[in-house]
Amino acid sequence: MSEAAMPPPLIDDIYDAALDPTRWVHALAKIADFVGGEAGGLCSKSVDDEVLNVDHIVGIDRRCMQAYAQTYGAFDPLMNVPLFDVRQIVSIPELVPYDDYRRGRFYQEWAHPQGWGDVASVVLEKSAQGCTFLNVVRTEASGVVDDDMRRRMMQVTPHARRAVLIGQAIDRKADETAAFIDILDALSAGVFLVANDLRIIHANAAGREFLRTNDVMRSIGGLLVARDPQMRRRLRDLCAATDAADDGKGHGLPLTTEDGACYVAHVLSLTASARRRAVAAGAAAAVFVREAALDTLSTPEVIGRTYNLTPTELRVLLGIVDFGGIPEVATALGVSNTTVRTHVGRLFEKTGTSRQADLVKIVAGFSSPLVA
């Protein structure tokens, strides 16, 4: 048979299944009909699987598949298909001695009651992790897999192989996107991926809550808008900036709410090709918004271990962040100014600083970006 003998609509159906896995059942029915079978399946097996994973199937009763999964899968001769090369067409007699197969439990209790005679199988893709292969079932009345069925399987194979590889690439991209979204949702800062016209392409969980409860940033007509007109214009200009204007470090914008609370927006251009590949298509900038405060501090013990601080020195350090100067810390901790001053001197020695402001910066460096 020539390649032209394969109906173009069947080729279309196979590639449709690459984009929409639910269409594999329809494609398998067409493949089985073209190849000369009555049922078909797309199966996979990883190196750790003890039975085959039947990912998509047509022409086999659901109850039979339940029995296969619970009992008969372990006896299936198709378990040997992964031992063969990619694109190599094999049938039951090439997997196991055919007479032994017909006497065995798998055939007698599961395949024969369904009228199975033989199966044409081909590995579509193989890796160190496992493989995917296509099966087309031939009934006992039709006899074993013949040369004509093999030729037809050979015509189907390159298209089915490409479809599987395309589907796997799409799945990997979807997994990367889902992982990326999970990472963004774990951040305590509001994160907005925006187009160069400030259209919001994606907002993380904190960002969505931010828009719902705060007036420093708003969504108006799907656009990210700062409350302050001057910052609104600045934000628009930064998000529309080209690569040439991007120093790779981003830009900070001070923001305030109507009641005077202070926030900071950090705008990072995504127009550089490497960054664009890492985020949503069409995103020109990422805008990070959070309150200008040292909340969400990492475990204080991490700071203590880093600088070999005693418990008292750590309390004084955190007191400087929370309360301010030495008198305020002394009052909060219930000790004398002299005691606090002594501990501050030790903090300077251990951290290599000389000002209380530098101590605050050190603590700020341990501030966690993750949701508490």
Provide a descriptive summary of the structure in words.
It is built from 15 helices and 12 strands. It is of the alpha+beta class. It folds into 3 domains: 3-177, Beta-Lactamase; 186-289, Beta-Lactamase, CATH 3.30.450.20; 300-365, Winged helix-like DNA-binding domain superfamily/Winged helix DNA-binding domain (Arc Repressor Mutant, subunit A, Orthogonal Bundle), CATH 1.10.10.10. A 5-stranded antiparallel sheet has the order 2-1-5-4-3. A 5-stranded antiparallel sheet has the order 7-6-12-11-10. A two-stranded antiparallel ribbon has the order 8-9. A hairpin with a 5-residue loop joins strand 6 and strand 7 (200-203). Helix 1 runs antiparallel to helix 2, helix 11 (300-307) crosses helix 12 (311-323) and helix 12 crosses helix 13 (326-333). The longest helix has 39 residues, at 147-185. It starts with 7 loop residues before the first helix and ends in a 7-residue tail after the last helix. The mean pLDDT is 85.
